[in-house]
Specification:
The complex is a heterodimer of chains A (134) and B (149). Chain A has 134 residues and is α+β, with helices and mostly antiparallel strands. Chain A has one domain (11-132): Roll (Thiol Ester Dehydrase, Chain A). Chain A has helices at 23-33, 43-48, 58-66, and strands at 16-17, 76-85, 96-104, 108-116, 122-132. Chain A has a five-stranded antiparallel β-sheet with strand order 1-3-4-5-2. In chain A, a hairpin with a 3-residue loop joins strand 3 and strand 4. The mean pLDDT of chain A is 96. Chain B has 149 residues and is of the alpha+beta class. Chain B has helices at 19-28, 34-37, 39-44, 141-148; strands at residues 13-16, 75-84, 93-108, 111-123, 129-139. A five-stranded antiparallel β-sheet of chain B has the order 1-3-4-5-2. In chain B, a hairpin with a 2-residue loop joins strand 3 (93-108) and strand 4. The model of chain B has no long low-confidence stretch (mean pLDDT 94). The chains are: A alpha+beta (134), B alpha+beta (149). Chain A binds chain B through residues 18, 25, 28-29, 31-35, 49, 58-60, 62-64, 66-67, 69-71, 73-74, 77-85, 133, and chain B through 21, 24-25, 27-31, 33, 35-36, 45-46, 51, 53-55, 58-59, 73-74, 76-84, 86-87.
């Protein structure tokens, strides 16, 4: 298995494409996170809020995006993680998770991260600093 | 609108990084790496135990900031930030509180927007800060108007 230290500035971790967003995904996230805002699970409530349909929790997408780093948990940890929620994620959207090395030294690797929908639009974008153990 | 609330804090609430909650959360974000849920993997790891995913602090209770009135509907989660001193350990106790960090307004094509920055912090039993989770909430003009009526 590759170690995270091997990645060089400009290289990207392998993309991960999620299955189409399902209602069950969002019901599960609502239950697991305690965020029961009905715009994420109930069609009528989403429409009342002026949305075309239910939308994914931004934190669901952010949570998914972090898993690009989980395989390297023996080498370090996510010390800083920042995202801006750029655009909404709807049911059946196909989201791809991306991370590219921006800076690197002996102590940490800074990644530019993004979640992109099937139209190539960034729905979430930000940065993650992965701190390396000695 | 919220300038007067900057600096207000909630009273600390004791939370436990609960094993079942971590597994359920990891499942909900499709991140079922055994470091989060398998006890043997946890024991054999450098941590000597299981850890929680970086966005897990979403589940904690941070208490109530006295006097802070938020609209029930129409809030937009604009940005989110996490900072960690180390990963969270399954089974540990954390003392969590919320604080109003900032409030500012900006003119945009969608009218005057309000930006409310709330930090959710977690400390260990000795009072060492373990993580900070900062949310920027956008309050649009329609919601602002409805609140001032």
């Amino acid at each position: 298995m590759t170690t995270i230290r091997e990645w060089q500035v400009g290289q990207s971790l392998p993309d991960v494409t999620l299955p189409p967003v399902s209602r069950l995904d969002l019901i599960k996230y609502a239950g697991a996170s305690g965020d029961y805002n009905p715009i994420h699970t109930i069609d009528d409530e989403a429409k009342k809020a002026g949305l075309p349909g239910i939308i994914a929790h931004g934190m669901w997408t952010m949570g998914n995006l972090a898993k690009l780093f989980t395989p390297y948990c023996e080498e370090g940890f996510v010390q800083d993680y920042f995202v801006r929620f750029q655009s909404m994620v709807f049911l059946n959207d196909v989201v791809t998770l991306k991370a590219k090395v921006k800076e690197k030294d002996d102590k940490a690797i800074r990644f530019v991260v993004a979640a992109v929908n099937q139209h190539g639009k960034e729905v979430v974008k930000g940065e993650a600093v992965f701190a390396l153990y000695e | 609108m919220y300038q007067g609330d900057i600096g207000k804090r909630s009273v600390k609430v004791k939370n436990i990084v609960e094993r079942g909650a971590v597994k359920k959360f990891a499942e909900a974000i499709g991140d079922l790496h055994p470091i989060y849920w398998d006890e043997e993997t946890g024991k054999r790891s450098r941590y000597g135990r299981n850890i929680a995913p970086p966005t897990f602090p979403r589940v904690f209770d941070y208490g109530v900031i006295e006097g802070l009135k938020l609209p029930a509907k129409g809030l937009i989660h604009g940005e989110q930030r996490f900072h960690y001193e180390r990963p969270l350990f399954v089974g540990e106790e954390l003392y969590c509180y919320a604080e109003v960090k900032d409030y500012y307004e900006k003119q945009s094509s969608m009218g005057q927007l309000g930006f409310l920055v709330i930090a959710n912090n977690g400390e260990d039993a000795d009072g060492n800060l373990i993580f900070t989770s900062t949310s920027t909430i956008i309050i649009n003009e329609a919601v602002r108007k409805a609140m001032s009526v």
